[in-house]
Amino acid sequence: MTHPNLKSLDVIAPNLNRRLSGVTSTIVRLVPLQTEKIGIASFGVGLPDQVPRVSLMQLLTMGWRKKPRVWHARRNVEMLLGIFLKYFFRHNYKLLFTSASQRKHSKYTKFLINRMDHIIATSNAGAAYLEHDADVVYHGIDTVGFSPTADKQVLKEKLGLPTERLIGCFGRIRHQKGTDAFIDTMIDLLPKNPGWKALILGRATEQHQGFLSEQKKKIADADLSGSIIFAGEVPVDEIADYYRVLDLFIAPQRWEGFGLTPLEAMACGVPVVATTVGAFPEIVVENETGHLIPPGDIPAMINTTSELLSSDPTIQQFSNNARQHMVDNFDLSVEADRLIEIYRQMLTGKKH
Questions:
Q1: What average pLDDT does the segment 239-246 reach?
Q2: Are residues 325 and 337 located together in one domain of the fold?
Q3: Is the pLDDT assigned to residue 352 strictly greater than 70?
């Protein structure tokens, strides 16, 4: 574990969820990069050793100082802890909350948000649901860690994947994520396109095991068990390789807060077909880095994907555009620097 210098520590970015999630991934990517420019550490669980963090004892005893610190919460439970530290323990914190949600907040969440000193939304669509002024800061992607491979076939062999061209769908396996819509699309298209197979990466939690069983039965009934591959869940540091072997990525979500998977795919030079949920319409450039379709519209997903499978030049052009779009507009350093700017503004009360 990396131990921060408590005297120069200006920002705490808590992570109070042991399971891997988009929020945890964001903290794991951002905090080590931000330490180069500001005193920042995390507090909590489920974090790898490279993320600097403070212990519970340090958290409880370091709060009394004249100069404030920023408490950057990304979940309700983290807002609640920040409120307790500030108002019950009298720690000198400025409370910051990042909202990725695109729906009306519950009364409880609104109660917590009303006690924050500053709000960030991860998209313009998300900001529209907030009853507060908010800065919009898009998530970024590590465009070095997520980058194209020079030889997909060699990488496929290393990962034990088939040599055919691959269409991917990554993330939790559940109805909300549209896994069934992706599978229905593949059941329609793969028999007509024998040079292609599908790759599903992610896991179904216990409550979604029935949904997973239904999907596998549907695939077996279509005699496509060898063509639609479930790769399970892989460690965070191996995910980029699974994007690199793809030729097309589909993000079929019916609802999404922000959604990192299209960013990760495009950073690896993979064109994207995405639904118009989350921040996808603000990330995917229509007819340049991929296509956007309505959520739950399986005929549109089939038709749009079919057109791409029949046009290698379009896929190649979209691939080049996607990679450049990520490097120019969504590199992780852009997000990190914008957050640091907000931290410093909160710490000093001045615009920077």
A1: 97
A2: no
A3: no
- In this prediction, residues 110-130 reach a mean pLDDT of 93
Report yes or no on 147 lying in a domain.
Answer: no
CA separation for the pair 329, 335 (Å, rounded) = 10
Clarify whether residues 169 and 249 are in a common domain. Answer: yes
Look at residue 136 and tell me if it is in a domain.
Answer: yes
> What is the signed CA dihedral for 8, 12, 17, 20, rounded to 10 degrees?
-70
Its pTM stands at 0.81
Determine, yes or no, domain membership for 145: no
Widest Cα–Cα separation across the chain: 68
Count: domains in the chain:
2
- pLDDT tens digit string along 283-303? 999 999 999 999 999 999 999
Same domain as 123, residue 11: yes
- Tokens for 284, please give them: 């995917």
Six-digit token pair at 8?
A: 């120069």
CATH number, domain with residue 343: 3.40.50.2000
Q: Is residue 1 part of a domain?
A: no
- Look at residue 265 in the predicted model and tell me its pLDDT: 97
CA end-to-end span of the chain: 32
Interatomic CA distance for residues 316 and 29, integer angstroms = 29
CB neighbours of 265 closer than 8 A, spacing ≥ 6? 168, 170, 243, 246, 249, 251, 272, 322
pLDDT in tens, 126-154: 898 898 999 999 988 899 999 999 999 99
How far is the C-alpha of 258 from the C-alpha of 239, rounded, in Å? 19
State mean pLDDT over 192-209: 95
d(CA 335, CA 340): 9
Nearest alpha-carbon partner for 140 in 305, 255, 22: 22
Band (2; pLDDT cuts 50, 70, 90): low
- The dihedral built from the CA positions of residue 333, 24, 13 and 112, taken in this order, carries a sign that is positive
Task: Examine the domain organization and report whether 86 and 157 are in the same domain.
Answer: no
∠ CA 236-286-308, rounded to 5°: 80
Q: Are residues 177 and 192 in the same domain?
A: yes
User: With left for phi above 0 and alpha for psi between -120 and 50, is residue 171 left, alpha or beta?
Assistant: left
Domain residues for the domain of 55 are 6-140+332-348
164 lies in the same domain as 113: no
